[in-house]
Amino acid sequence: MGGLGGMFNDPQLFQKLAGNPKTAPLLADADFMAKLKRLQQNPNDIGQEIGDPRFLQVMSVLLGIDMNFGAPPPEAAASSSAAQEAEEDVPMPDARPAAPKKEPEPAPEPEPEDEEALEKKKAQEAADAEKKLGNDFYKKRDFDGAIEHYNKAWELHKDITYLNNLGAAKFEKGDLQGAIETCQKAVEEGRELRADFKAIAKAFARIGTAYEKLGELGQAKFQEGDWPAAVDAFTEMTKRAPEDPRGFSNRAAALIKLMAFPQAVQDCDEATKRDPKFIRAYMRKAQALVAMKEYNKALDVCTEASEHDDGTHAREIEQQQQKCLDAQFSARAGETEQQTMERIQNDPEIMSILQDPIMQTILQQAKSDPAALQEHMKNSQVRMKIQKLMAAGVIRMGR
User: Fold this and answer.
1) E strands, the chain, where?
2) Cα–Cα distance between 366 and 55 in angstroms, integer?
3) Of 238, 254, 325, 383, which cross-links 230 as Cys (Cβ 3.0–4.6 Å)?
4) In Å, how far from its chain's centre is CA 69?
5) Contact predicate 325/390, CB 8 Å
6) Of the ranges 7-16, 72-81, 334-343, which one carries the lowest mean pLDDT score?
7) In terms of C-beta density within 10 A (0-12 exposed, 13-18 middle, 19 or more buried), how is residue 287 classed?
8) What percent of the chain has pLDDT over 70?
C-alpha cells in the first residue's frame, strides 16, 4: 500500500486535481484537504482512506483510469428505464371538463432594495472598476500598478477573484513567496465566503506552480553563485515537497559552498532517509566530511553508497573514495615516523581495525604475500578497512 500512497507526493498533485472537473470541488472541502495533507506526510495511511469514494476519485485522476466499476453507462440505464416504463400499463384518468380560464394576476411591484444591499452593490461595482484597471496594468506588464489596483479591489469588496489576480501579478513580478501567501489567503477566505470551488481550485493551482518555480529559481541562483538565495529557494522546495530528497540534497550543495558543512551533512542524512538509493546525497555528504577532515567517516559514506548503488554510480563513488584518500594523504604529508605513530595510536577507529583478529591475519599474510592483499580487497568491508589503514599510513604501498 506504501507504493500506492506514494502518488500523493506528486509535486503537481494540486494542479492535476484542480484541472479535473470531478476533483476540483474537493479542494474547497477543508476536511478532505486535511486528510489529503495527512496522506502526503504519511503515505502508508492510504489504507485508512481507501473506503472514501472521494479518494478513489482522486486516485482515478492521478492514475488516469476510470474507477466507476460495475456502473452501467448512463445511456444504457436511461434506455432500460424507458423500456420498462413502456411495458407497464399506464392508468388513463377520466375525462374532466376544462377548468375556466383565470384572468392573469398583475405582476407584483418589485420591493425596494434595502440600504445594505445597495451599499454592497455599489462596493462590488467599485471593486470591479479597480479590477479592470488592474487588468489593464497587468496586460502592459506593469505589475506594481496591477498589484495596487487588485489590493484596492479586495479592500472594497471581498471576492477571492481579486486575490487570485493579485497572486498572478506577484507571480509574474517574480515575488513567488508573495504569490504563494496571497493564494493561500484566497483559499482560506474562499472557504469562509463559500466561494465558487473553481476560484479556490485556481488558487491551489497557482500555489503549486509557484512552488515549482521556486525549485527552478534555486537552481538558477546556484548557477549564478548566489548561495544564500539558493539556500532560501531550496528551503521552500523542502516545504513544498517534504518527502522529496532533492530539495534537501540541493540545499546541502549550496550549504557546502557557504562552508556550512555540519548543516550540509544533516541535509544529506534527511535526503537518504527519504530515499536510501539517492547516491548524490551520499557523495555530497562525503564531500562535506572531507572538508571537516573526517576522512574515515567520508570513506564509510562511500561504502554505504556502494551498498545501495545498482552499479550506475560506481565510477562516481570510486572517484569520491579516491578524493577522500588523497585528502588524507595530503593531510599527513611531511609527518615524521614518530608523528605518524602517535596519530595512529590516538585514532580509535584505526586502533580498532588493527585489533580485529581477522584483519591481523590478513595483514600478516600480506607481509609474506603482497598479492593476497589484493584478493582480500574484493570483499567490500575488508577493502574499506584496508583503505583506511593505507590512508592513515599503517600500510604503505609505494608512497
Assistant:
1) none
2) 63
3) 254
4) 32
5) yes
6) 72-81
7) buried
8) 82
Are 362 and 382 in contact by the 8 Å Cβ rule? The answer is yes
d(CA 196, CA 16): 18
C-alpha 255/C-alpha 281 separation (Å) is 13
Domains and CATH numbers, the chain: 2-63 (no CATH), 118-216 (1.25.40.10), 244-331 (1.25.40.10), 347-399 (1.10.260.100)
Summarize pLDDT for 181-221 with one digit per residue, the tens: 999 999 999 999 898 889 999 998 898 888 778 778 888 88
Return the residue matching grid coordinates 562535506: 288
Q: How far apart are CA 16 and CA 72, in angstroms?
A: 27
Which distant-in-sequence residues (6+ apart) come within 8 Å of 380 by Cβ? 303, 306, 307
What radius of gyration do the chain's Cα atoms show?
A: 34
Structure-block grid coordinates of residue 160: 477571492
pLDDT of residue 101: 60
Q: Which three cell numbers stand for residue 151?
A: 489590493
φ/ψ region of 356 (left if φ > 0, alpha if ψ in -120 to 50, else beta) reads: beta
Amino acid occupying residue 207? I
Work out the pLDDT band at 113, boundaries 50, 70, 90: low
**Sequence-ordered alpha helix ranges (H) in 195-333:** 197-224, 227-240, 245-257, 261-274, 279-291, 295-308, 314-331
| Terminal Cα-to-Cα distance of the chain (whole angstroms) | 55
All three cell numbers of 330, joined, read: 595530503
Task: Give CA–CA dist 209/199, Å, rounded.
Answer: 15
